[in-house]
Structures are given as C-alpha cells and as structure tokens.
Fold each of these.
Amino acid sequence: MRFGKKAVLASIATAAALALSACGGGTSGGSSSGGAVNGAGKTLNVFVGKNTTYPQQQQQWFTDTAAAFKKATGADLKFETFASGNDELTKIQTSAVSGQGPDIYSLGTTFTPTAVATGAFAQLGDDDWKALGGKDKFNQAALGISGPDQNKLYAVPFASRPFVMAYNKELLQAAGIDKPATTWTGLVEQAKKATDASKGQYGMAIAYKDNYDPWKYIWAMSEQSGNKLVDGKTANVNNDAVTKAYQTYFGWLTKDKVVDPASVGWTNSQALANFASGKAAFFLMTSTGSLNTLNGSAIKDKYDYALMPTQLGDSAPSGARPVASILSGDNMGIASYSKNKDLALAFLKMVTDKDQQLSYQKTFGDLPTNSDALSSLSSTPHMAAVTDAAAKSFATPFTGAWADIQLALVNVTVQSIPDLASGNVSDSALSQRLQAAQNSAQQSLNRAK
Amino acid sequence: MSTAPHPAPESRLAARAAGRGPRPAPPPSAGGAETGPADKRRGLSERNRPLWMLIPGGILMLVVIVVPLALGVYISFLDLDQYTIRQWLSAPFIAFANYVEALTQSGILRSVWLSVSYSAIAMAITLPLGVAAAVATQNKFRGRALVRSIFLIPYVLPGFVVATVWRTMFQPSGVITNLLHQLGINPGLYLNGPNTYWVLVFVQIWASWPFIYLLALSGLQGVDHEVHEASALDGALWWTKLRYVIFPYLKGPISLAILIGMLHHINNFTLPFVLFGSPAPDDVAVLPYLTYETGFVSFRFGLSAGMAVVSLVLILIPLFIYLRAVKLDDAETSGGRK
C-alpha cells in the first residue's frame, strides 16, 4: 500500500479532529490552595441522581443551592445528573482513572459499600467532620452506612428515606383494631381480621414482584431473629432463620391468605395503587415517596404511617436487633482525586445544615439526616412514624459483595413466584433456592477485598 | 442493527453472477497487469486506486469498532470488578479463568441454549408470517398502502414500548389473563415461571415479523414483470408459480432476513429485561440478561466481558455461514488483491 502526501495530511487532520472531540469533556477545578472557604474563581462539581418524580423541583433546587453556595464561598457550583447506579460507577471509574471529574458524588446507601470498594473516595477524618459541623449534628443512625465502622467513614449522610408501613384507619377500625401491631405475628392476626376476600379487600398489600422489596423483608426478619446475613466473610443465607423469614413472607399469601393473589405480579407502585384505592388495610415497605400518591387518593384522610414490626413474635431471641427499616437514602462522598476538598466540605456542611435540610424535605419528601431538623418534623402530619423509623434504621452489611447478596435474596423470590401463585412454596424447593443464594453470596464475599 | 443495510436483490444477483462469472482463476503472480473481463468492470485499475481516501473511514472503524472490541477482549482476561476497576489496567491478568468460570459456574450454556432456541423458534414462525404478508400485499387493492403501513407498526415501535405494553397486558390481573380466564383457560402466570419462555417467543414474533415482511416485499418487487407474464402464459397455477417462480427470487433477501433476524433475537436485551425485570426468571435467563446481570448488577466486569465475547462468537457462526453462502466475502478478497 502506498500513501501519498495527501494521505498523510488527511490522516493527521482526522486524528487531530478525533483527539479534539475526545477531549471535549469539561475540565474543572483549577489549582486549589488558600483560604478555607474562599472559592472565588473555582468550580465545584456535584454528581447526583436524577429525580424522576420531581424533575423541575430538582432543577430549581440546583439553581437555588448554587446561588447560596456562590454567596457563601464565591465559588461556582455545577450539578450533573446520572440515571442509574451503573452510570455512576462508570463515571467514578473514568473520573478516577483520569483524575478529573465530579468532586462530590451522591451515593445511594446500599450502593455506598460498592462505591467505597472502588477506593475512589476519600476517608473523612476528624478535621473533616469538624468542618462539616461535627458528627453530632447528624442523626446517629444515618451514619451507619458511611463506612465499615465508626472510625472509618467515607460518606456524609444527606437524605434519609426510611421504610414504614401505611395503614388504612377506616379498615382497621371496621375490623376492631385500635392500633397497628408491633410484631409480625400480631400484624398477620390483624391482617386476617381486616381481610374480606369476597369484597376484594385484603389485610396487606405486598409487592412480591418488586425488584428490591423482597430482600428488605428477609434482611429485617433475619436481623430480628438474631441472624446476621453477613458475618465477616461468611454468608448466612441458608439457615433456619432465613428459611423462616421466607416462609413467613410467602405464607401471607399461601397460608394466611391476607394478600391479594394478584400481588404475585405487583411491583411496589402497583401495591401502593391497590392500597390507595382502599382495598388493603396495610401497605408494607413504603416511604415518604408515597405521600403524594396517597394525598391525592380516595383515602387521603384515612391513612397514616406506622413502624413496620420490629420483632417476630412476643419475645425476641438472643442477638436480635429491633430493626424498623434498612438504612435508606443518599450519602455524599468526596472523590479522592478532588482538588477542591475544602469547597466540597463547605458544600456538604451547607446542605446538611438544619434549614437546608428542612427545605429539601419540603420539596422532595426525603427526610433530613440532620438530627435537629429530623426531630422538628415529628409533629407534622404523617411524619411521626417516619422520623421514628429514621432513628431506628439499621445499616445493611458494609461490603462490596452486598449488591450480589441482595440480588441472590430477590432471586429466591423471583424463582418462587410461580409456586407462590399456585398456593404452595414447598420446603424442598425453597431450601434448594436458598442453597443457590448461599453459594452465590459466599462466592461474592470470598472475592470481597 | 435494525437499519442494517441489505443488498437490493438486483445487486445480490449481480454479486452472485460475479461469483459465477467466466472470470479466469487469478494466477498467483497476477498483478495490476491483469485485464480479465471481471477487472474491466471495476473501472479504475487496481494499482492507482486512491486508497488514501479510505483513511477517515478506516480511522473511524478503528476508533468505533476495533479499539473497543480489542479492549473488550482484553478485559475478558482480567479479574476486573468493583475492587479493581479504579485502576483497571493493573487489574490482575487471569488469562482464561473468566471463560472457565463462565462455562463451569455461571449457567452460560443454559443461557446460550435458551437464546438460540427462542431465537430459532421465533424465526421459524415469523418467516411464513412475513412472507405470507408480503405476498398478500403484493397485488394492488384498495387500501393497500394503509395495510402496508399498519403492518410496519410493530417494527417501528421502540422495543421498550413494545415490552412495556405487553407486560401490562400479561399482568396477573391484566387484559390477557382476564380474557383467557373468561374463556375458561387458566395457564397460570405469564411473567414468572415456565410460561415466560413462550411469552418471550410470542412478543418477539409480534415485534419482528414485519422485518421479514419488509425484506420479502423488497424481494418481490425485484421480480421482473416478464416473469409474471411468462408464467401466466405457461398456465402456471398460483401455487406452482409461487413455489417455482417467485420463491427462488426471494431466496437472497430471505436468507439475509433470517440471518439478521436471528442476530436481533439473540442480541435482544430490551425485550426480556423490560418484560420480566431483574433478576430474570430462570426460564428466560437468555445470554444478554446473564451478561448484564454479571456486569452491571454483580459488577464482575471481566467475567461479563468474557460472556460478551462468547456471545460474539455465537453470532459469528451464522454470520460466517451466511457470508460463505452468498459469497460476499469472495468479492472482497479479489478486490483487496494487489
């Protein structure tokens, strides 16, 4: 092959054009030094999840926060959004490799261990916490998933979305129940009283086909029976406690018959719709995200939230933890390559202060992680149980293997749904599925670093 | 993939003719001096072709296809997961361990079987459907344009929309379940359990038969008017005409349709993912599903890349057979001769 001069020129031109377009990604920051919060001329980049429920409000929040930040520090604040955890992981990777990218990442609580496992986030020392306004300003439970232990924290709790259950006061009253039960056995009894299948009315609305719900029940019941799903490097997924948890969870439909048979096809939002139409007494595993739907529904004056049961039966076995909810919400982590750590800390301090947290709550419904803000909310309508749940939330295991374990737990339910629909999940089938879950959980833990 | 160019029947025939043409076998030392009849058709002599004009395209190919592909293959040899991704170039090199794990522990063989079988079943059913629809709309009738456009609706709808609509209808309390229930049929769940496989096949057929229809139609348009006339003069009845006169014309476009259609099915991730959610019910854990879950839920990027390479090899097999069959690669080898 012979190429003329023109060819060489053409190839150079093309390569240059490509190189230019490839480098089109914005550069940020600039050299950082000088005063703690004098950020004039600098830009802080923050990477947060897209809020699909409140897109316009989120844009407004971006603008307002940027203005406030500019006023406080003189620095510009830029937000960028991502659609999924996977998008974010890709961004973390490319940014960490190139050493430039967002300074702050918003991390879902259960995604935090995975993100921290990449090593792309800076550990927060005592001075950092001081700059943030002190560890004490946070709801202490919310710090539970900021790092593997109290002395190794990587992420700042920003928003909290604890899980509670909603109940229909009218249906409970009609069934002669004065207040929701605090144990699972008690709840099933109440659900039985409130069930009238001939009217299409059931005690509980459960989202069996949801991609996330099932593991949260199993984790909670497992903790409440004193079984840690992850103990160090050991997975405890196939044992009596977990088997019992699945049997209880499936039993609501197959044995107790307090759940609409159609719920084998429901996601969380479909179960919510069912509850909102007044056909269920209890709707489990919901958060303040359901406020809008419920306030616009036929039962808007008839519902309230309560803690989900924190105990299996009348007495708690040894080692049991009274978990009300997984620790759910958003953390924010500072990238270890960030040259704007001071600014990042100033930003995080600002958005975790009481007033900012309360205004965020008003717009988006997510609960504050600031403990003053949280306690000031408990008297507002529907908020008592939710703020209580925020304080009684427990962290899921802090391991990079958690995503896999979560998947394995949901998979047990997914594969059991046909049996569930036919009315019986046999013990042998369940134990086989649990063994598969145990294997994949253990394998994933073996790889954890 | 959906808009992959396909050779019009005319040019296909031409290509075949070129393959069979009276071209003398090229002598091993044949240089640009060769002046066979086949070479005359090429116009420019091979020696002075402005090859440099291929550079922009070549670089794009390199950047868009070759580099990512090479990276993908390289990643499949790495132990790359959430622990090593930050410095992924220094992730441990584990050679074929990912492939061994994929083959022995991940259930990939089952996924391959599910992918191939569902793809083949869907193709076996869409093929007669598409050809029949093309033949039916070949002759002019009132409202033909409307019918033809309606036929194309499933094809132009995005896979995401198709899957969402069907998922809603297949719900336990959805339209289809209720309808069958009223007819006294109760086959159980559609979005979980063994029925999922057939739901996937069904929705795939619904979504992809217009593709076959489209290519068959283009084949029919390529049939010369004289051919119709001649067969009519010979008194051929409709079936004889269809079987011995028309179908041979369709062989080219249809084999292309089968190939591309199969590749579509095997590579289809959107349909099963939106229909059934994640994690997948065991009966529809097709290859793209498994690759996705391994890579993006479990964050085993290396293992997932290995699976992607396996699926690449898988779809290369029909592609290779096709290229051999239509001798498209023949033209290329002789063109690249210097």
Amino acid sequence: MDTNTADKLHHNIACSFCGLCCDDLTVQVENSQLRITDNGCDLCQAGFSEPLPPTAAVNRQPQINGHSCSLDDALARSAGLLRDSRQPLFGGLGTDVAGARATLQLADRIGAIVDHMNSAAMMRNILAVQDSGWMTTTLTEVRNHVDLMVVFGNGIAERTPRFYERFFNNAESMFGHDTRQRELVLIGASNDNELVQNSSRITRFPCAPEQLGTIAMALRSLVNGKSLQTENIAGIPQSQLLELVQRLRDARYSVVTWNSSELDFPHAELTVQACCELVKDINIESRCSALPLGGSNGDHTFAQVATWQTGYASRFSLASRKPHFDPLLFDGERLLSEQEADLLLWISAFDTRRKPPLSAVPAIVLGRAGMQCETSPEVFIPVATPGIDHSGHIFRCDSIAVLPLQSLRASGLLSVAAILQAITEHL
Amino acid sequence: MLIKLTAGTVYDPANGVDGEVRDIYIRDNHIVGTPSADEKIDTEYDLRGKVVMAGAIDLHTHIGGGKVNIARTLLPEFCRSEPGENDTRPRSGCSRATPSTLLAGYRYAEMGYTSAFEPAVLPVNARQAHMEMADTPILDTGGYAMLGNDDFLLRMLSTGAEQQLINDYVAWILHATQCVGIKVVNPGGISAFKFNQRKLDLDETTPYYNVTPRSIVSRLSQALYELGIPHPLHVHASNLGVPGNFRTTLDTMEAAAGLPLHLTHIQFHSYGTEGDHRFSSAAAEIAEAINANHNISADVGQIMFGQTVTLSADTMHQHANHQHAHPNKWVCTDIECEGGCGVVPFRYRDKNFVNAMQWAIGLEIFLMVDDPWRVFLTTDHPNGAPFTSYPHLMRLLMDRSFREEMLLQIHPEVAAHSRLAGLTREYTLYEMAIMTRAGPARILGLKDRGHLATGAVADIAVYNVDKNRQRMFECPAYVFKSGELVVRDGDIWNVVRGNTHVVRPEFDSGIEKSLSDYFDRYHSIRIQNFRISDDEMANHIGSPVMVTDCIARSNR
C-alpha cells in the first residue's frame, strides 16, 4: 500500500466486500469518511463509505441488554455467558484471518458449534467437492487463457461486479490473444451481456435456476457421446446443446462458472456437481475449468482458516475435543430455531446489515459499528472493520490469493481478534 | 535459565560424535559450553542410558498451503476416521494424511522433530502457506518457492534473457515470498498442461514458450549457484510415476552440469520397464548415479501401505493418474499462470505388484546410496505416506530381519524382482542422525541446527534405547525446542511457537520495475500486495523470519 498522507489518498487498497478482492482501489479519507476514487464498484463503494457512527452514538458503544456499558463490563458479561453455556453456537463469523483464528481458539476452548452465515451457499460447493471433486482455475488464468466462458445462473455481474472488466474484457492477455474474440454463453436468466464488450459473441439459453442442473447433465451426456431421448432439454433444442458441446471441445481454454449463493433451491449441490462433472469430462480431450465465483463477509477466509485448523470449513462442532462435521445437524439457523443452542456468539465485522437471525436464543453480538439489531442482544460490542479500521488478511474467492488489508483510519474500535482475546482472558 | 542434560549417549555427526557419553548445557535458547563451577544449574535431566540427538529436520513435507486445504476439503472421511485423541494436546485436530495444522505440529514434536520445510510454495499462495505453518506449533518452518512453470520465467527463457536477469527474478521471488529455497515441479509441464499438452520430456519444448525442461533446470540451478542460496535447486523431475522414467531422472542430473541439484521423492522417479508387468526397479542405476555424482542429493519419498492422498503441483501427471483415485474423487486446479495443484487420494496395497515394488524401490535407494549426507528420510508426506510413519521407516532401515519379515508379507513377485532381500545394510544410529538431522541442516545451510555443539539452537531429542527402533523413535523421553521442554514421554508438555527460515540473496532491484508493469498488465493482484513484509510475517502471519546467509558466487 502506498499512502499519501497530505491529501489522505491510499493506493493499491484491497477490498473485502466481494470475493474478487480487487486490490487496485484508491481510497480517499477525510475525517474518518472513506470514498473510493478509483476502480471502485457499487458494492465496494457502499462497504467503504458507510459512515462511522458518532463516538457518542449508542451503536458505537458496548451494550448490555440495550444499555450502554463499559467495554470491560461487556467483556465480563460475554465471558460469563460463554462460561455458563452448555451448547454455544458461533455464527456470522464475518471476519478476517486473525478474527477467524481467535474465533476457533475460543470455540475449541469452550466446545462451540461453528457455522458461518454464508454456509448454505458454501455447502453447495463443498458437498459437491466432497462427493466427486472438481477441476478449477483461478482469476489470473481466466484473465489470460479463457476463450469461451459459460455462465450458469443469473449472472455474475451483480455479486462480483468487476469480473468482466478485470477478467474478460481485459485489453491484453499474456499469450497475445485478441480478447475481443472471447465468447460468452449465458445459461439462465443473466443480464450480463450488457457488460461484455462484443455482444455479437454472446449466446443465451434462458432457463429457471432449477433447470441448470438438467442442462449441465445433458451437456455432459453429449460430451460423452451419449444420445438423448428428447429433442428439448429445459426448453433448449438438443441441436443447440450439441453445438455448444462442439464449441467446448474446440475451445483452447473454456471456463464454466456459477455463484453458489444464488442457487437457492433444495439440493442445489447436485447442480454444482453436474457442472463439475461436465468440466471434468471435457478435459478428457480438451481443456476446461470450473471457476466457482461469489463470496462475501469473509466466508472464504473463514473456510480456509477453519479447514487448516480443524479439517472442516464450517458447520462443525468442537464440543467433544475433536472436530465433528455435520452439514445438517450443525446448520446454525436450524440450531437457533430449534433452540438446540443455548447461546449465540454472532460476528459480523464487514456488514451492518448481516444481523443475527431472530430467535429466542440469547446472543452476544460483535457487529460492525453502526449495526442496529432488531431486538437488543444480551451483549453488543461494536467492532472495527478489517481493511478500514485495522489491517489484516482476506482470501479471494478462488482461495489462492490472500490479500493484505490496511488500516485506513483511526476509529479507536477494537478488532474481532482483540475482543475475542479479551473475552478469553475473562473466562 | 541453565539446564544440564547429564550423561546422555550423544550422536552428533556434524561434530563427529558417535555415541559418546556427554553432558550438554542449555542456556536460554542455545547450547553452551560447560559453565563455571559457581553457576547454578536450574534444572538437570539425568539422561544416563538414553540417546541424545539434535531435533530432527524434515526437508520435504507438505504441511502448508492451499493444496493441503483442498485435500482436507475433498476428504472429510480422513478427519472422521482419524480424530486426534490425546488429552495432553492443547488444541483439537484430526486426520493423519492431512492433519490439521495444530495436530501436525504436535505429532512432529512427539517424534522428536523440531523443524519442517514445505517444499511447494506457490508464490501467489505464499501467505497462506506461511499462515498454515505459523499455525503449526513448536516447529520452525520454511518454504521452497515454486518456479519453472510461471509465465514470467518461461517468458524470460524464451526470449533468451541473460542469466543475471534470471538471478534477479529468482532472488526477488525469494524475498517477496519469504522462502528459503526454490523448487521446480515437472519443469514446463504444468504450464504445458494448460495448453492441453499431456506429456513433456526433458528435451521436448513447451507450447507457446518453446523452452525445454532441461533448460529450465539448468538456468535455475545456475541462478541458485550464483546467488549463493545454500539449498540446491529442489527438483521434482519430469515424468513422475511413469515406468521407464529413471532415464529422465539420470538426464535431469546431467542437466545440472555439475552444479548442486536436489532430486526430491526420487523413488517416484526410479522406475524401469522390465518384466511381465512392464514395471521394474531402477534403484540400482539411480543409486549408482548418486554415488558417482557428488553434486546430487535426493530425498526418497518412501511409500507405505495404506490409505493416503497424493497432492502435487504436477497437474499434468495428477490428472493422468486420476483413474487410480481411491476413493474415486479428485481435484485439479490451474493456478494464476504460475503453477497448479492436483489432489488424488490413493491407497497403496501390499498385494499390488506395482505398489509393493514402489515400497521396495524406496528402500533399495536408501540402502544402496552410500553417503547418508546426500540421501534424506522422507515419505513426501502425505504422497508416499503420512509423516507419522517415519519411526516405522526407521526400523525398516535399521533392522534387516524386520525388513525381510515385511518383504515376505507383500506381493510375492517383489522379492524375486528386487534386490532388497540381498541388501544386508542396517543404518546405524549415527547414520540415522546424519540422514534426519545433520544432513538436512547442512543442505539447507542452517549452521545452528542439526547439531549439538556450543552455539547451536537447543533443539534436542532424547530417546529411550529400544531394540525396536520404531518404538524408540515414536516416543522420545524428552524433546527441547529452543531450550524449552516441549515433549515428555512422547506427550506434549508445553507448546512454543516457531519461526520461519528465509534467505536474502542480493539482487538488482531494477527488476521490480518490469515486474510491476507485468503485474499490472497481466495479473490479478498488484505487486505491492504480492510481496510479504517482515512485519507481516511477525505480526500478522505469526512466524517471524530468521535469515540464513547467502554468499554470492561469480559465474562459473
């Protein structure tokens, strides 16, 4: 990071508000107010520019049952609740690497169940990998190699806004390819074509999200030389799918992408798996790679740290002195609605809108300063946001690059890691 | 704090000490000379009848970086079936082949290991590798950055860049990634796979760049020599696992043209094509070449029977081998125009001819390479077997009758097709201390590790003597890390944090300008965010750096 303190302009800043983690931002800071002046997108602008509440505001103060209190009282009360809990759940978990490490250390010590707020989306990919694996690629590979990209779903522009700009419409590739010749196939209800520079090279196959898996499976069968007994697959003539199969075979380096967070229907992991198996089978003869996109609120970060420390990304329990994974049993929302957990520790350091689910279970909330919970939790502690209020690390959606996050202002707020450490000391 | 280790039987090959009864003194973190009579000994350990060695060093073990996490994600059953159960360990964990980082640290220390090196650090993924190693307690760690399939180097080679420029790039990578060495995996082959090429021999040219693997090995080994990096180029040669590949391995040795070269998991590269199965041992040819060429060193990559997972940057061969996946699921990933990663679970079967031969080939290499300073004990964890099988491997090497007993239990044709039965050599404790302590320290340039003389860091393992060497090495009486008692009777006693070994070769920083432009044009992260600073290592990643000296040499 380069900092020009005179006009408070920070260059080469990484963003933590979507899975692309673009690190080419220029951020202007004036009186603790941040603004992206270069290379921002809507998501990033919103994340960085959310105002810090005034020091005296109630949601910048620690609270017990909705009443402002000292930090020490909030920490002591939190420690007391954790000590007395028989089945604590650590949820939310929107934090950076240091926050994830501190979360897991505390969870291991007191025997908590651990579930990230984005687990439902994460599990769609993870269950597919656990069952049959996949062949994937990463962002720089796409930027330089791709000549045919197939998008399954409602488009990737909404949740990863700069994807096309940075990785598809890039001016030049390492290998001297004319990037304007790149072809895009949109399967689903995508509007991404508006963002692609040469719309004549776009093919669209509109369909409902629930039909994506059928189409992927049909493509896979055709790749393997099987004949289908029906003329239409999810409303698409078989001849058109055959044509697409030929394009996939002929491509130098095709990429199949989706965002699991939008595949919000039962057993969507089978749709993911169908895409993955399609990719694998194309590779018998030519090259094709999957690129699972998406991510927010430190989900990839938490998944990576938890996986190296416990073997599992999310939805596991540390209650029995060994990690125990169960994607159904340890679904946090289910545990809360069934009141199988008796205490919730909710962490959301990036996003004031990601509040704990409403439930009868008492909660300790470590929320980005400014978060306004619907009902007052037992304890609320405002926390610093990584990459804004303190430095740290975040994982990109391809889980390969780990970007350093910088401290851009002095808010006086403590990081999640620091607060969890302090709670541990009160235990 | 002054500690006295009294009257242990010391094996310290770096200082020529072969089983002599000696006292050792530790002051704070280091071994010191005999203190004056008026100095107070704070703690004394009576080591009469016990064997004392330096803490062991594993120079090739996959304990950090994205590939292990991919394997953990792919194989939750490893965690489920092998939970870590030991109440003396402060944190929970699971799995043997893909142990969670905390458990890996405990288990290494529980065998008397105090340092371990991750051999496959992708530069773009170096932060994660260091984070995982920082979360591997007790051990000092280090990484080898992978080059030789990265666009920048291949581009330089294809345009005939001067050696000086290559040296600058190699040095810059070592600084930026906080690594201690350079590894090349299937030189050029991982890149070629991205252009849909499925095979690349040492003298074939890569697609797009038109460079040969031979030139990659030769230019990189030259760079390391001139930069004065202690550890030679760490080479995972072309044609891994392919029957007949021993010729490629011999040719790769030749590509170094007399410069130091380390061939890793050489067992996987020592296969012939003789016999009914068209698969045979070429261990004799390989061992002979190592014996004859003093610039060559190797670690073995011994396989053990049972379930494990293979993980390698060599996507070309991992993809080719995916039909052997057991259980039947696997991952291959192309990474950042830099490298790749293939994860294929595998079960080595003792009644399978090829697997049983692999086992025999590894042992043959151990037993036929004369110089224990140039052959290292590894299983290429977890590719050949989890590192927890080291004590069993030590017994196989130190106990001929045990080895022959094992040979009788495996595929019956192996005894007839390998020289193993005729190899009478038994490794001594002194040789074992070379292969697992003094040797790795020397080849990594670590002057204060792997030995027990005054000034060494007090990384010390103490074993109860047991004729069953497996039992002996899997349960040390005491292990000290930097002078702190960390293991007692094979159990974790106290947990300390480790540091990271790095090298800092000198280079012309002018290279940064072209790299910065290159990153902006083609990569997905900025160069400023690619480099890892010392402050980041110490305060955020959690493993402060320790610098090993490089002494630059002029061109040969």
